[in-house]
Design brief:
Blueprint (H helix, E strand, L loop, with lengths): L1 E3 L1 H7 L4 H8 L3 H8 L8 H10 L8 E3 L6
Antiparallel strand pairs: 1-2
Length: 70
């Protein structure tokens, strides 16, 4: 399973979800799903924005986790 590390990256940089939300220019519902790993797809432009805003390479946004069935 792949999950986004947005919360961890924000904490490392001492930034808030609100700070990121205001800069992502997306609806709060979609933003909240993205941050809470409740989305099944992500637009490339949103990945690029996250990478730029969080000042990290795109691969730092992701973490591969073991599924509960493994």
């Amino acid at each position: 399973m792949i999950r986004l590390r947005i919360i961890e990256l924000l904490e490392e940089q001492q930034k808030t979800k609100y700070w990121l939300y205001k800069r992502m220019e997306m609806s709060y519902g979609n933003f909240n799903k993205l941050v809470n790993n409740e989305t099944s797809s992500i637009r490339f432009e949103n990945l690029e924005k996250l990478s730029l805003l969080l000042n990290c390479p795109i691969d730092d946004l992701f973490e591969i986790t073991r599924s509960e069935t493994e």
